[in-house]
Each structure stands twice: as structure tokens, then as C-alpha cells.
Design brief:
This is D-ribose-binding periplasmic protein. Residues 25-38 have a biased composition (Low complexity). It comes from Fuerstiella marisgermanici. It holds the Pfam family Peripla_BP_4. It is a single chain. The chain has twelve helices and 13 strands. It is of the alpha/beta class. It folds into two domains: 46-145 and 304-326, Response regulator (Rossmann fold), CATH 3.40.50.2300; 147-301, Rossmann fold (3-Layer(aba) Sandwich), CATH 3.40.50.2300. A seven-stranded mixed beta sheet has the order 7-8-6-9-10-11-13, with helices on both faces. A six-stranded parallel beta sheet has the order 2-1-3-4-5-12, sandwiched between helices. β7 and β8 form a beta hairpin. The longest helix has 17 residues, at 56-72. The protein is globular. The protein starts with a helix and ends with a helix. The relative contact order is 0.14.
Length: 357
């Protein structure tokens, strides 16, 4: 056999050896990590922004998430569970994981009871929280406001509406959420004249005021905290019932975005707008119009647009390998603002611009 033929047979044998066709660094080889900064195999990053339910509040956050998606050239799936339950929220997230989403930002519905589940997600992909935190979980960080500070700002509006004191009704979706507990407590502490912080309740877990029954102070009495499990129609029905039950009310406070409009409708139907003071939270159009018309003393707003934008920006950085985007505090503070008749026009104009209206 000639030297040329021998060399040819040797090369052919090498080519036929198992695995020799794979080259380091190419798809299918052990030298490939299976992922890349763009999501792997040339695909774009894919992240999800998960809310706790469907609401106008979250449509503003969706606008922020979509703007960030365009700016950073990644795919974003904004998921709003049709029911405000932990079961439905979990189903939506499991669907996202099955679809191959690479990172998730979520507003937990029941932080205390979702820790184990959140930890399971965090073991698989980067996980952050927004709007409502789950500090006991392995989430990487939280984006949102200090809900206790937001509650205190709302309490200040109640004091402005009732400087001489009075009887106050609090309404909110549910109290299982981390943000709900702190927001409600902030209002109560202002009305009872307490000088506390969110850290106080982290260090003193038995200091929370009971959720049932009356809470009385020297000037103000919280007659009840009414929950509706995130259902606007239930919020309206319970507001109407409260007006019949507590006939000497001086103020009604709505602590979720849809609560103030429900209180407004109940007060209007009962002919008590202006007689019973209305204090809100978040930026529903009904609430803002009531402020303009002098029928609502004011509302404390978050910045849902930035919740969406910052969540997408941070997840994109994490997927690009930039862990420095996570602060040492594991918290990006987006402070609340109080909106009253003096600044409602300016605020509403800016809000419409962000929503593309």
C-alpha cells in the first residue's frame, strides 16, 4: 500500500471515531456551556414580569416593561393572573418555566406561604420581587417602595382630612401580602401617633395590630379593616355594607388601586360624598378625577411604570452576568408620592404620557 493510501485510511478512521465530529465550543459538544449572553443558540433573552392580578395599575407597569424590552432588545412576557389567588399565580409561573423563560420578576400574593415555592424557582432561574416582597425567600432582590412609608403618607392624608380626629374605615384586597401588611400598619401608626419604622416590625413580629375589631387611639378610631380578595365588585359591595354598618364614619381609606373607586361609587350612591372623607392609594382615573373635583382629599401613588422598567433592566443585566446590578441592600427603592389637588394635573399629564395616551 502506498504512503498516500495509508494516510487516507488513517484520516478516515479518525473521522469515524465517536464524538470526533464535535468541536469544542460548538453546539452539542461538552465544551459548550449551552448558554450565552443572548440567551443561548443565538436567541434573545426572555424574561417575565408577573403581577398579582389584572388591574389598571399593572397596565402602567406593563408600559414600563415593554419600553425596557425595546430599549434592551429582549423579549418580555407580562403575565397578569385572571384571579388574585396564589394557586392561579403559581399555574401562570409554572407555564412560564415550561416555556423556557430565563428570569422572572414577581409580585408574590402570599409571601409567607410561598417561600418554599419561590425558592424552587430561584434554584432554576434568576428571581426578583417587585411591588410586594418575600424577604424570607431566596429571591435576588426587591424593586418597589417602602410600603410602610407609603402607609404613613396615606395616614398623613387622613390627618389632613380630619385634623380633629374621627372614625376611619380601612379597605384593602388581602392581608397575606407583604405590602398589604406594612401599608395598613403605616396608616394605623400615624393615626395612633406612633413614631415607628418598617424595621420595628421586622424586629418585633408581635407588634402588628390585630386585623379584627376596632383599634382606638386618643383622636382616631379605626373601626375595621375590610378585605375583598382583590375583587372590585366585592370591594364595592362591602363598601356599601360598611356605610350601613358604621353610620358615624368620618373617613374611608382605600389601600389598593381599585379600592378608592369602589368607595367613591358607594359614597356617591349613598349621597355622602364630601360628608365622609375619601383617601386613596394608587392612580386610578376615578380617584384622580375625584381629587380634581374636590371629592377625594388625595392619594398616595407608587411608580408602577418604573417597577416594570427596572425589573426588566435588572433581569437583563443579571442574565448578561452583571451581578453588580444587585445592591448590597438587595433593594431598589422607588419612593411613593402624595397626590392632592395642588399637583394632580401635572401628575396626571405625565401619567398619560407614560401610558401613551
Amino acid at each position: 500500500m502506498s504512503r498516500f493510501a495509508s494516510l487516507w485510511l488513517l484520516c478516515l478512521g479518525l473521522l469515524l471515531l465517536p464524538g470526533c465530529a464535535d468541536q469544542p465550543g460548538k453546539a452539542g459538544s461538552e465544551g459548550s456551556s449551552g448558554s450565552s449572553p443572548d440567551g443561548g443558540d443565538g436567541k434573545r433573552h426572555s424574561v417575565a414580569f408577573v403581577t398579582n392580578q389584572i388591574a389598571d395599575f399593572w397596565k402602567i407597569a406593563e408600559a414600563g416593561a415593554n419600553d425596557a424590552a425595546q430599549e434592551f432588545d429582549i423579549d418580555v412576557d407580562v403575565v397578569m393572573p385572571p384571579e388574585a389567588t396564589a394557586v392561579v399565580q403559581k399555574q401562570k409561573v409554572e407555564d412560564l418555566l415550561t416555556s423556557g423563560v430565563q428570569a422572572i420578576a414577581i409580585s408574590p400574593l402570599d409571601a409567607d406561604n410561598q417561600v418554599e415555592w419561590l425558592n424552587e424557582i430561584a434554584e432554576k432561574i434568576p428571581l426578583i420581587t417587585h411591588d410586594s416582597d418575600a424577604p424570607q425567600s431566596e429571591r435576588l432582590m426587591y424593586i418597589g417602595m417602602d410600603n410602610y412609608a407609603g402607609g404613613r403618607a396615606c395616614g398623613d392624608l387622613v390627618v389632613e382630612a380630619l385634623p380633629d380626629g374621627g372614625k376611619v374605615l380601612l379597605t384593602i384586597g388581602r392581608l397575606e401580602q407583604d405590602n398589604s401588611k406594612y401599608r395598613r400598619q403605616g396608616v394605623i401608626d400615624v393615626l395612633l401617633g406612633r413614631d415607628r419604622t418598617a424595621a420595628y416590625y421586622q424586629e418585633q413580629p408581635d407588634a402588628w395590630d390585630p386585623t379584627d375589631g376596632e383599634i382606638a387611639g386618643d383622636k382616631y378610631t379605626i373601626v375595621a379593616t375590610v378585605t375583598d380578595q382583590g375583587k372590585p365588585e366585592v370591594a364595592l359591595s362591602k363598601a356599601e355594607d360598611a356605610l350601613n354598618t358604621y353610620t358615624d364614619l368620618n373617613a374611608m381609606v382605600g389601600l389598593f388601586e381599585y379600592n378608592p373607586p369602589a368607595l367613591y361609587q358607594a359614597l356617591k350612591k349613598a349621597g355622602k360624598l364630601g360628608q365622609i372623607q375619601l383617601v386613596g392609594f394608587d392612580e386610578n382615573d376615578v380617584t384622580l378625577q375625584a381629587i380634581k373635583d374636590g371629592e377625594c382629599i388625595g392619594t398616595v401613588v407608587q411608580n408602577p411604570y418604573m417597577y416594570g422598567y427596572e425589573s426588566v433592566r435588572v433581569l437583563n443585566e443579571i442574565l448578561n452576568g452583571n451581578e453588580d446590578v444587585i445592591p448590597a441592600s438587595k433593594y431598589i427603592d422607588i419612593p411613593p408620592r402624595s397626590i392632592t389637588k395642588e399637583n394632580v394635573d401635572e401628575y396626571w399629564e405625565d401619567l398619560r404620557a407614560k401610558k401613551g395616551q
